Amino acid sequence: MRMKNFKGALEYVLLALVAALTAALRLVPYLRYGPTLSEVDPYEYLWLANYFYSHGLGGLHGLAHSALWWYPWGRDFLSSEYLGLPWLSALASRLTGASVEVALSLSPAAFAVLGVVGVYLAVKEAGGSSVAALTAAAGFAFLPITVLNHGFATDPAKVFDGIALLPYPLYFIARSYRAPKATTSIAMAAAAGASGGLIAWFWGGYQYMALVVALLAVTEPFLNEPSLQGLLRLLAAWAAFAAVALTSPAVSLHLFTRGVGLAAEASLLAYAFEYLALTRLTGLSRLRVHAWTLAVLAGLAAVAVASGMVSLPSRVLMGLGVTPPPGAVVPLTVQEYMGVPPQQVISSYAPFFVLSLIGVVIMIAGRATGRLTPSPTDAIAAVSLELMIVFTYASVNQAYYLPSAALYAIIAGGVSIALVGSLRPAYAAARRRRPQQATAGRGAAIGAALLAAMVLASMAYYAYVDYSALQLEAPSIETGWLGALRSPDGKVIVPVNNAWPLALSYVRNETPPGSVVVTWWDYGYWVGVLANRASVVDGSTINGTQIELVADALTAPVEQSGAYLRMLRLPTNETYVMVYDVFLGIYDNSTGSVTIMPFPNVVSVGPGVYAVTYGLGDMAKSYQMLRIAGRVNPYSGQALFTGYSSVSYQSNVEVLQFPGLAGSPAKNVSNTLNTTIYDLIMYGLSQLGRYGVLGQGASWLRSASSFTPAAVAYVDPTGSMAPAPVSAPSPEPYYVPVAFFVSVPYSWQGPGVTYFYAVIVFLYRWGGLP
């Protein structure tokens, strides 16, 4: 008894240690850079959290329409956003006295601990192994994809919060299967459904509950004969899920009547049919009945989807490998909608993927040979493996599902360790011991321990990788998305600068209160929250036409661009356009002249052939804008061979460029420089001496005698670049320069020159033309 108590206490101490390390690791960016939020989406949550803090935690009515977002239509937050995280942040702020921003900034660390505990509980209940549960918990704590992908302080995200809650439905449903009493089993199943429904307040992944219920309904008959208790268990889970999920304003009945919820409902009907058939009719084979039922169910599902009776979101269709219909270009241009190479998907959670494959083999071969010790939660173990396979496949088709795949791989890997540990010796299987007499062999226990030890060793390495990476995670608004730099003497430098804070502060204080600011969608949240001005698009804009009009305006010839802004009903002379990028500058120490070009990304693509793509900001995103606007082939991801690319030659060196800022053919270069977004940037560079607002690290540029925009003329055999001056036409009177905000995060000396990196935000006022 003492030994059992000691083992139990040690287990909880180890879990607490993992949880503490989880929080400490994720606090590194907060402790290093302060509570300033990273990325862009968190600023939407900040606005909402401030709303709840100011208007009361029950003040939902004011969110039905906000004119600050999605100009000119306004935004209904109740139907277009999940409000759980902002609401919790406002509550935490009120309870602790901390600012709303601090509470929101720290929330990823809290949810990470919640996820660690949830993974531990799910694996412990499904597999019955403490070693497996602790190993899986360590996986969630330290696997880079669960740490660096919105899983650290200062970068709150609804996706991560939802993923941290996903283990709890599996935990409660596993408890339901283990419960000795029918009433307890139903209660635990209802708790599983309710915990799944709670996710609907945080993230759209609440719909995964439909898949979990459907997989349980179709998997259980392979392992055990359908029963009335099994049917009631699944019905209780689904009913509780629906009851809780529908309390979220973002959830509608459509999910249950025409959406993915029909998968669960159809599977429950199939389970009920099999139960009735097998109990009412004699002589039927359970597996044969189940196989025929699944065949009919699959056929009906295919007909329902093909006929439009079932309406699936584009994310689900793309996850299944279905290409969006013609005209749905936007999903093809968003990183999280794009596919991921299979090897990259697998490498994101490789230790647990390998463990899961072992678990699949054991689940099939172990039951066939009788060596796998039967367990009440075999169905949960099987479903965890199925979820890993389903989401791994979905991740190959769409990056959005990769964090979910990692979570389910961690759980499946932990369950697989438990399955290894439960294998009976061959002689025990040969004697056909009854389940209650079966015990796992010593070799199986050693094998499980070795697998856990290898995985834990890899997690220790990952923890070091995470820590090193998190030290460089400065807030995006303070770096302009310029990544860590390595100086000539080998030092790693975090390029903190204030170009964006300067620009947003200027807009807030120096533009009329009713002004509208047009940017690409990434920065819409910053404009609304930090500049307190209406924005046209942001990261949550669901109106594809709105996004297309902004893409049209930015990629049209300057003299035609304003026609698209008029379609957005923007106010003349009170509409501003902001574009930005990162630049490489060369300051001549003797003359004071500056040659400056968009950051050149140079890649050798063959002997004497280089590809140069410009920019880390809007220029880097401009090809996607061109695709959305239909100015290039929207289904081609190749930017180097379009009417907006060019080529230059020097001796035996060929340089392919996008955008085509220099080189030939001359028609392409002229077409590029007359395109609004490129013109605003390149012309703006030439006017830095007149309109430049010099921020952090840039004051020394006041001595510059001139600014000459440039591009790459050629690349010499050593890989060095030679600049070619670029002359961009003036965008006036269509776009009038207001101020250009310059910050230089890093500079270094060369022979007679000073090289520097600059982040520049260009602010223009639309003149109302044409």
List keywords for this structure.
about 775 residues, alpha/beta, 9-stranded mixed β-sheet, 4-stranded mixed β-sheet, 32 helices, 15 strands, about 55% helix, about 15% strand
Question: What can you tell me about this protein's structure?
Answer:
This protein has 770 residues and is α/β, with parallel strands linked by helices. 54% of the residues lie in helices and 13% in strands. The protein is built from 32 helices and 15 strands. Strands 3, 4, 5, 6, 11, 12, 13, 14 and 15 form a 9-stranded mixed β-sheet that branches. It has a 4-stranded mixed β-sheet with strand order 7-8-10-9. The protein has a two-stranded antiparallel sheet with strand order 1-2. Strand 12 and strand 13 form a beta hairpin. Helix 10 packs antiparallel against helix 11. The protein starts with a helix and ends with a strand.
